[in-house]
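[recover] target loaded
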């Protein structure tokens, strides 16, 4: 899960842990079914906290599930930052992001199930992952690496294709996930205006170890 600075005293630490437990429970529910109709009592029991504790942190289930979704998106973005740091080529960042996502279906199954079930509605949300993706798209356009289009349109294409890849990894676990991600990354790069031979090479560059 995404992390922040530790609370400074025992009360704050306990309060923060209760909140984290509720968010974890909500993320588990989103990963398992994507259904947000679970009762507050069921969520509190799953989190192993008192029913009354819920309202010390959230005004509604909607607020909790939104916090759980934002937590998942931030973790996804932080994973990208950690493993793709040092890559300066926007095209390579896009390709590596697709390939990393395919591998995360196995290494981070709960996180990727959350994105699979609920990610489409957050492609244009103001979250850490969207800001990172938009930054990379805009850098690629400014440098001439990508064809200049409305960045929001490019983000729609990238986000929708990425979520389709995640769906494919879970729907067809028998497929070679790395091979599918490489081919899809090459197609996306060509869609963004990268020349075919260049897109083919970039999509197959060595990928950092996810471990």
């Amino acid at each position: 899960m995404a992390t922040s600075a530790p609370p400074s005293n025992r009360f704050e630490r306990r309060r923060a842990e209760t909140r984290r437990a509720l968010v974890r429970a909500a993320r588990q529910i989103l990963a398992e079914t994507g259904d947000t109709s679970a009762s507050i009592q069921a969520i509190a029991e799953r989190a192993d906290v008192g029913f009354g504790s819920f309202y010390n942190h959230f005004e509604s289930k909607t607020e909790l599930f939104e916090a759980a979704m934002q937590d998942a998106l931030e973790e996804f973005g932080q994973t990208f930052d950690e493993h793709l740091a040092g890559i300066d080529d926007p095209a390579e960042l896009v390709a590596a992001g697709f390939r990393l996502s395919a591998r995360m279906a196995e290494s981070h199954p709960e996180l990727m199930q959350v994105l699979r079930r609920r990610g489409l509605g957050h492609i244009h949300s103001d979250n850490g992952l969207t800001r990172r993706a938009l930054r990379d798209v805009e850098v690629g356009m400014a440098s001439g690496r990508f064809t200049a289009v409305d960045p929001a349109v490019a983000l729609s294409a990238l986000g929708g294709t990425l979520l389709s890849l995640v769906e494919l990894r879970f729907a067809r676990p028998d497929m070679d996930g790395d091979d599918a991600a490489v081919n899809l990354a090459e197609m996306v790069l060509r869609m963004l205006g990268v020349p075919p031979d260049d897109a083919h090479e970039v999509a197959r560059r060595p990928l950092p170890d996810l471990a």
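[recover] notes: The CA atoms of residues 50 and 172 lie 40 Å apart.
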